[in-house]
Design goal:
MetI-like fold; 251 residues
């Protein structure tokens, strides 16, 4: 516990210093509609805690959860298919890369046009942003398995199923958890973008509504809440990873 506290101390000091600079700059400008201070944002967050925590946060988290589930299933399936079939890798890999060259903000209005203000227009934005790191990272995990280890297991009479479960799956787990930790912030961003461009609830929608009222602290409050939730989710995944991959670092 003490070692973890010491390791996090430089980051804590840096964040505290940045907050002090931000607070001083905001007080000097005295224009909260442009640059609210951290204290004003926290006060606004507490003032709006009712609608933010009971209505808009659950709506955004629903989008994030559904988007992540679809992205994980899709990403793992694509990675497994590309690893099992070289022809599929040649066909799918360029398409997966090309899907990330299209600006998300250009597609989000189309999703709203197709699905209206339903949850699926936001979920598609989140999936578009999150399935890529999961697919590529898990696929790289499969590629990291040494061919000599596969040949050794074949020599001992192992079939493809046993090689996958006993060799490839443990080797891919660190890559999988890394991809999830990358995908969570992207999923939160995707949900917020979808809500910003077209929604009737959610933190992104609430932030946009506050912007039309020139309420700078109200714009930042949902963003701060989103960042805090994303960091908490990443920390939970990191804890699960630590408990699951017990063999990491033992060599």
């Amino acid at each position: 516990m003490k070692n973890n506290s010491r390791a996090n101390l430089p980051a804590a000091i840096l964040v505290f210093a940045l907050l002090i600079i931000w607070q001083a700059g905001a007080m000097h400008m005295n224009a909260a509609y442009i640059l609210p201070s951290p204290s004003q944002i926290l006060a606004k967050l507490w003032e709006l805690r009712g609608p933010l925590f009971t209505a808009h946060l659950p709506a955004t988290m629903e989008v994030v959860a559904i988007g992540l589930i679809i992205s994980v299933l899709l990403g793992i399936a694509l990675a497994v298919i590309m690893d099992a079939f070289p022809a599929a890798e040649k066909a799918l890999y360029p398409i997966i890369i090309a899907s990330q060259t299209i600006p998300t903000t250009a597609l989000a209005p189309l999703f709203v046009l197709w699905f209206g203000y339903t949850i699926w227009s936001k979920v598609l934005v989140a999936v578009l942003m999150t399935f890529f790191p999961i697919t590529i990272t898990v696929f790289d995990g499969f590629k990291s398995v040494r061919r000599e280890m596969e040949e050794l297991m074949l020599t001992f009479g192992a079939d493809k199923r046993q090689i996958f479960l006993k060799l490839k799956l443990p080797a891919v787990l660190p890559y999988f958890f890394s991809s999830i930790k990358m995908a969570i912030p992207l999923s939160v961003i995707g949900a917020a973008i979808g809500e910003w461009l077209g929604a009737q609830s959610g933190l992104g929608y609430f932030s946009r509504r506050m912007m039309t009222q020139l309420d700078g602290a109200g714009v930042f409050a949902p963003i701060v809440l989103l960042s805090a939730v994303a960091m908490i989710l990443v920390a939970i995944v990191a804890l699960i990873e630590k408990r699951t991959i017990t063999w990491r670092g033992k060599a």
